[in-house]
Amino acid sequence: MFSLTPEQNELVHLPLNTTVFLEGLAGSGKTTAAVQRILHLISNGIPAQHILILVPQRTLAQPYQQALSDPQLKPGGTVNILTIGGLARRLVEFFWQLVAGEAGFLQPEVPPTFLTLETAQYFMSKLVRPRLEKGYFASLSINPNRLYSQILDNLNKAAIIGRPHTEISQSLKSAWSGNPGQMRVYDDVQECAIAFRQFCFEHNLLDFSLQIEIFRSYLLSNPTCWSYLHNQYHYLIAENIEEDVPISHDFIRQWLPDLDSTLLVFDRGGGYRTFLGSDPVSACSLKTICQRTFQFEGTFINDLDFQNLIEIFQDSLNETPPSLPKTNLHTRFQTINQRFYPQVLDAITERIHDLVHQQGIPPQEIVVLAPYFNDSLRFALTKRLEDAHIPVRSHRPSRALREEPLIRAMLTLATLAHPLWDEMPPINKFDLAYTFFQIFAELDLVRAQLLVNSIFTEQNQEIQLASFEKIPPKNQERITFQIGERYEQFRLWLRDYVNQPSPELEIFLIRLFDELLTQPGFRFSQNERAGELVANLIESVQKFRRSMPLNFDLSPDECGQEYIRMVQEGVIAAQYLRSWQMEQTNTVLLAPAYTFLMTNHAVDVQIWLDIGSSGWYERLFQPLTHPYVLSRNWQSGKIWTADDEEKVSQQNLDRIVLGLLRRCRRMVWIGYSELGESGFEQRGQLLRAAQRTLETINQGVPNG
Amino acid sequence: MLNLPPDFTFSQSNLQDFLECPRRFYLRHVRRLLWPNREMSGVTETTRRIEMGYTFHRLAQQKVLGISDDLLFKFIATQPLEFQEWWGNFLYWWDQALPNVLYGERYAETTLSCGLAGFRLIAKYDLLVIHPDNTVTIFDWKTIHPPVRVENFIHHVQTRVYPFVFSLAGTTLLNSQEITPQQITMIYWFTADPFKPQQLLYSSNQYQADENYLTHLITEISGRNGNDFPLTQNEKLCGHCVYRTYCDRQFVETSTENELDLTDNPPLQPPDDWEQISEIVY
User: Fold this and answer.
1) Interface of B with A in 188-227 (CB under 8 A)
2) Which fold has domain B10-265?
3) What is the pLDDT of chain A when averaged over all its residues?
């Protein structure tokens, strides 16, 4: 039997029909108790299929999934683990015919199309672009793609707080006190949001906001749907409810009287997804409807010394007189301070090398965190660690495929293979040389450029690729005949393809991959990374094509062209989301701090980078939306002021720093340079708090 | 000892993968390797049929959930003619079967699981009917074309896994009453031959044989190391395998008997990236 504290034990063994609100800080054993409670329910005869685990994000399901795959578990049904979005979508699929007409869809008899983030953004762009040409959003200087995504964000925010999407601008305007021109911008946002919703109704499209809206307004009041929920689930465990959205809390509140038992797990220090609509205040209000409340106070992660460090850091953040160090904390909190940024990275690599190779700390017990992990930082650190023989993985969860060189090559080849596509960005010699460099094994950029210069001609915007035989012998020798052979293989394949009717873009990509790029002499042969990227690209194309309404009447070729154009313009990022579970785990992790927090696991060593950055606490610049105003906690009509901004920044900083420290067992290192990555002097609240903490630690133990 | 993902469970589909090609099992279920392949495109004949199969399964589930035939009919009228024919036959068969094999408590798309040989073994059932006399019929909708003869199914690992798992785990649907293998019948119902469902009766002997077989199979797989998952000798199986080009096997035209099986993995259910919305910077 798992060893539990008396409090955990009491909670696990409560009568089966109890509703419980369990709160505590990170590391206090809440999830462990919740997992054991589920196992207890099942071992006491509760059919597993009657239990629903609601999580705000899939990464938080991992401890439950692992426990439920234990072979010792009693035979029976299986527990469902869903997010509120997943549940909404499932119910929309099951009961579409019952509610589609009433909800306002113009073709309720036709199956719905669920939009992904990128396909939603595509349709939004279709509606916003003509308006941009008419002068909408004229006062704003913003990338159109961010404009589309922020309008979608507004729709999502309205849906998750259960407010009509028609009231977005009203809320934003009532809190605005700056330039009056912004009022017009909010009106434009509102018009686009309404037009998008109308477009979805006309074409049976469901973005996230509409799925939630249908779930809330129609499915939960439909007797057949409600009866399904009532019969299917009798027990609810909701994990990390502070990271979930108000609509999820409303649902729990409505459902709870029907359930036999409920366990709501609340992390008192959480709320990391507030900027995405999570609402700890709304979550906490569920306490009043539960029969029992449990508060777990201790920590299974931090020892007493580390708890002392947390107290000191907390005082430094609050600028209150510091707690005194009760012991020597020098080994628990250290700085890696250098003048220049690359020197910091070198020093960090040395320290990690020492930890792994000298002190025997497993790589998976080390994380390097920063507010953002851009490509250059990711590359610089990964390269250094790999050179030091330290296994490393980076987790930057969303990444545009078009940023991947291999994918850029695939997109260039798609354009090259479809000469009749119009309005496409022209292919230049550099693009093609870079593409050859990406696809031909053993070809360097210099020879790639020479090859392209030798074979590439363009007349009337039509690209001709000459045969290798026709280029001067001197160049042939420099390029090598082996590469020449590959090039001919490529050229003939392309010629055959162009002479046939164009299939769907997916088919082109698969044929290109299958018939050419995985052949001997090409770089994709048995290249798993390339395989994964191309598979993701194909999935993205497929979703795009499937979301296209029938009455758009696009031919396969037109649809492919539209996709490529949208990716090139950045409307579709072709983003893919890697599963954490798919990644190797015996590695040092590089990740944005918020991403690490949302995995909710602890490690031995944390290294914080860029602590001079305001990205640790300041919200993103989003001129078209506002996560705090579009929330239930914002009083209607109140003006958002600089004081409010400062208050939430401080709140964010406290939350993230304490959240990280509570997920660290042994030591935190902070890496900073006098001149930051961009060459400017480092400042920022976190840096100041860290310095205050160090001063306190350096004062030493009183009388010690 | 094989290093399986922490949430790994055995199922009929991954066991079948192992039996057909140990390498495919390793790449798909242990390495979880994504590799581009024709079936991914969603525009081949095979994937068109997979999509129809998925829609059929979902509609059958909706029917069990209580959506009326009239509402479903409007929906089906938007589908291809072949699909409409499938559904028409299905409804006709359903009405005929209602007083007998469909009579009782019905559960659609239900997953049961049990522990075996140190792992969890799961089975996802298209339809389970608990009859008033506590006998049970397991239905599996087969949208494959052409239909397969019953003798081809007898040795299919699904035919072993489904009744075996139900024997151990099905009591959860029977108010914890014990169930004997003799109470279980499995029926394969084919869209392509709707009036000749294939019925298989379960027995204690078969249960014992299945337990031995599955225990042995799971022990064998989990005892291997990563280098011990060779490619199949039967290259015909590579024809529609997703890893054909990864393994450098040639395309061989084959029947599509197995690849249309939707039992465990509805292949067209798109992952919901809105759930990961927090990961994306607006």
Assistant:
1) none
2) Lambda Exonuclease; Chain A (3.90.320)
3) 92
